[in-house]
Amino acid sequence: MTKIKFILLNLPLLFFLISTAFAQQNMEWPHELTEDWTPVDDSVSTTGYFGQAPSDAIMLFDGSDLSNWEAAPGYFINAEQVPEYLEALQTHHGPAPWKVEDGVMTVVPGSGNIMTKMGFTDFHLHIEWKTPEEIDGEGQGRGNSGVFLQGLYEIQVLDSWQNPTYPNGQAGSIYKQTAPMVNASRPPGEWQSYDIFFEAAYFDDTGKLIKPAYVTVIHNGVLIHHKQKIKGPTTFIGPPKYKPHPRKLPIGLQDHGDYVSFRNIWIREL
Ligand code: MG
């Protein structure tokens, strides 16, 4: 066996040892440690997956106003901050500060995240989104937003059209956990759709995890996650870890400083 082959084969072990060392010494994790650069097939072409909401769906945004949304508290960066975030959800946060124009809502950079007024457990969420036609920035800085399931678990929104970044952080990824099976992204400035089927995590009375959350995602009509296990709330720093939370929680949308737009958002509780 060549030296290079030996090193490559032992990379997972090395990663594990480094992670364990960091965890044991309770050191701050560099955020790069949870960025997986294994490439994803990006040869899929799609036409999108749009249309009217089913008659039994709850319309979360029909293009008229943000009456079903409010301002959200700032998000957590690591797993230990999740309880603080859940606590912050208890207080009223005021009207959603994003712009609505021509049937479309758009992030007002710097105004903060928004979330639904209603909470949800298991659901099918349909959402259409668009990143700016004019390319500004690269990698994570290009058309970044996110759909936060129960405000905790992010399905990444990003302009991933010929825009390399770590694949477990590209559009459709369960951010910093699982890359999409393929890159079904459309070019910037074109509407894209997510259909997200979410099964919430269960905790017992003592807060112990009984069942993790699972998610299935269809991006522009293409299956990109199939009943994928979620490892815990999305964290930028360090490994994800479950923290007990209420059964019903709001859906959040991220202000990551980019002009990302959304339309036709509906949900069906399962
Ligand atoms: Mg994001």
The biggest sheet amounts to: 8 strands, antiparallel
Query: Helix segment count?
Result: 3
Structural class label: mainly beta
Tally the beta strands. 15
Percentage of β-strand residues: 25-35%
Termini separation comes to: 52 Å
What's the Cα radius of gyration? 19 Å
Mean pLDDT level: 91
The bound ligands are: magnesium ion
Shape: globular
The helix content is: 10-25%
Describe the protein's architecture and organization.
By secondary structure, the chain is mostly beta strands. The protein folds into two domains: 3-34, no CATH class; 58-269, Jelly Rolls, CATH 2.60.120. The chain is built from three helices and 15 strands. Strands 1, 3, 4, 6, 9, 12, 13 and 15 form an eight-stranded antiparallel β-sheet that branches. It has a five-stranded antiparallel β-sheet with strand order 2-5-14-7-8, with no helix packed on it. The longest helix is centred in the N-terminal third of the chain and has 14 residues, at 11-24. The mean pLDDT is 91. Magnesium ion (MG) binds at residues 144-146, 154, 156-157, 254, 256. Magnesium ion (MG) binds next to β7 and β8.
Task: Please provide a brief summary of the model.
Helices cover 10% and strands 27% of the residues. It is mainly beta and 270 residues long. The strands form three sheets. Strands 1, 3, 4, 6, 9, 12, 13 and 15 form an eight-stranded antiparallel beta sheet that branches. It has a five-stranded antiparallel beta sheet with strand order 2-5-14-7-8, with no helix packed on it.
